[in-house]
Amino acid sequence: MSRTPRPVSTRVRFLGAILGVVLLGMIIAGGVTFLVQSERVVANAERQLDGFDSTLSTSSQDAAALVAATIPGRTDGTVALDGTRVLATTPAPPGLSVGDDAGLVASLADQISLGNDRGRLDSDHGPVLYAAVETRGGVVVQVISIDQRMELVTLSTVTYGISALVVLLLVGVAGWFVTGRLFSPLRRLRDTTDAITIDDLGTRLRAHGNDEISDLTTSVNSMLDRLAMSVDAQRQLLDDVRHELKTPITIVRGHLEMMNPADPHDVTETRELGIAELDRLSRLVDDIDTLADVESGALEAAVIDVGALTDRVAELAGAIPGHTWTIDQRARVRIHGDADRLVQAWLQLADNAAKYTPEGTSIEIGSTADDTTAHLWVRDHGPGIPPAARHRVFRRFDRLSTGRGVDGSGLGLSIVDAIAKAHDGHCTVGDTPGGGATVALHIPVTGAQSPAELPTPVRAGDVVMQREATG
Q: Which ranges carry the Histidine kinase domain (predicted)?
């Protein structure tokens, strides 16, 4: 089977989605960590300046002496100012070179003259925080470089980023193999379904594990089983119909070949025989259509009074000549189903009983019910049905050999069985006390109509067209 090319496979899309989620999570985690660490660095610098401010505020030394006694850190520097004139500054290195940055000194002098003792400025060292304290002989200013304080945070962030990329690569490699194993049952499922043809429906998948893919495999195997049953049923029906069609066609063809066109009597007999055989073919097609309708589940469900249904069937069956019809029992129960289809099935049982029993015998119709099931039956007093043959009477085109020359399509009881199954019921064949057969429909009392697991219906037109196509 040819497939439409895909630009990106499901495996790649699935893995890409996983990597995208992992990458997004890493970015969020790294970003939040960076922001928290940055805020902490700034907070530590502010606390240092607070300490500087509180210490110098209580000192009585002059500005130059205070600066000379200060030991600078790597990221800060202290300077004593008198306006824009630098009185003293901490050595650089190890501290910042504050006194040599004329622009920073001028900015500090401007801010101090405006009364801004704390703030943030730009310098040659990047953004800095400062705190100014006025003492004897000048103003002492401590400056802290934010960029240098952030060096450790920046290094940690870069390290985190490199580690995240390595982890993402490892997740991608591991994910590629994991998704490969995850999708391997789907590939086997695809290959198996590609290999299945209408001529070979026997291939099945092996279910591994106990997960959703295993459930899917089991469902596909079940679907293939039902499909195989449906195809086998259609083939069997086609073979049966082909066999049933051959007999009348052969009869009509043989009589037409032997007919003497110059003999009016022979022409009339041949015409009557042809019409009779065509009528039989028409009944066969009608029965096939009826069977297909029933097996497709096309029922009109309603609440049915079984007692009233019994009276109706007995009234209709009374029109069948040659027998005495009586009602033996009436069930006082209601069921859900298609009344017309149940009447059709029940009358078919009555018709079969009339065909296969001697004329003049009585036939009883009745219904009973228990807590779960309604039983609709027909009881005759004929030769009965041998136990060894009872499993065959509901097959399509299967007739019992009675020697009575009973006419029919061979689909009557198949239709009865299909109607029973469409109502979630079944049919049984039993013995009548004293001789005869009792055939019954068993319909659930509380069961509503549900689609029966039956083979896909075959329409008469499809059968005939396929027969013509196969010769």
A: 240-447
d(CA 109, CA 82): 8
Dihedral angle sign, alpha carbons of residues 21, 27, 28, 30: positive
Residues 86, 3: one domain? no
Q: What is the pLDDT of residues 79-129, one digit of tens each?
A: 888 888 888 888 878 888 888 888 888 888 888 888 888 888 888 878 989
DSSP characters over 255-316: HHHH--TT-HHHHHHHHHHHHHHHHHHHHHHHHHHHHHHHHTT----EEEEHHHHHHHHHHH
Global pTM? 0.49
Q: Among the three residues 164, 195, 226, which one is the final residue of a domain in this structure? A: 195
Q: How many domains does the chain have?
A: 4
pLDDT tens, position by position, 425-470: 999 998 888 888 999 999 998 643 333 433 444 444 443 444 344 4
| Burial readout 291-312 (b: 16 or more C-beta within 10 A, e: otherwise) | bbbbbbeebeeeebbbbebbeb
